[in-house]
Amino acid sequence: MIILIIVIIAVIGLAWIASYNSLVKHRNWAEESWAQIDVQLKRRYDLIPNLVETVKGYAKHEQETLTGVIEKRNVIAQPNASRHERVEQNAELNGMLRQLFALGESYPDLKANKNFLQLQEELAGTENKIAYARQAYNSTVMRYNTKLESFPSNLIANIHSFMRMELLDIPDEEKEPVKVQF
């Protein structure tokens, strides 16, 4: 009888440890996914000054757009900004970058500039990587949150104060249909 009780306690203990370790693993995967987004945001952060400097030579009277891009870039880089704030600021920066690229249409010499084209291509590639990293983050967070809510790991999560993570969503202005005019 005592052996049976010891075996039951051992099985429960092992299940507890396995469930706890699984929660830790999923939380760490979600954190690593966020770090991948940060890597791509840093890459974009580093590309923006080069792009702005290239455009400055061609578009002296477009200072407002250039200044706005740099200001948003600097706000995003603040270490005390929350994830949510950084995502919102990045959405605003995306709009400003679209304006910056639209300047290329207004200045044929700029549009033909190799540096501008290369920077534009690198930034577009980085934007694609950011989108992919956001998808990976949301997928990882969804698996983590599912684990938090599933029995019996939800009991262990509550006892050990595992917290739900928020998914990254698309800003409302990016959900609106694109207006194409000819």
UniProtKB/TrEMBL annotation:
Keyword NAD on entry: no
InterPro entries in UniProt: LemA-like_dom_sf (IPR023353), MamQ_LemA (IPR007156)
Keyword Transmembrane helix: yes
Domain of life, source organism: Bacteria
Subcellular location(s) per record: Membrane
Main location per the UniProt record: membrane
Swiss-Prot/TrEMBL keywords: Membrane, Transmembrane, Transmembrane helix
Family label: Belongs to the LemA family.
Protein name as catalogued: LemA family protein
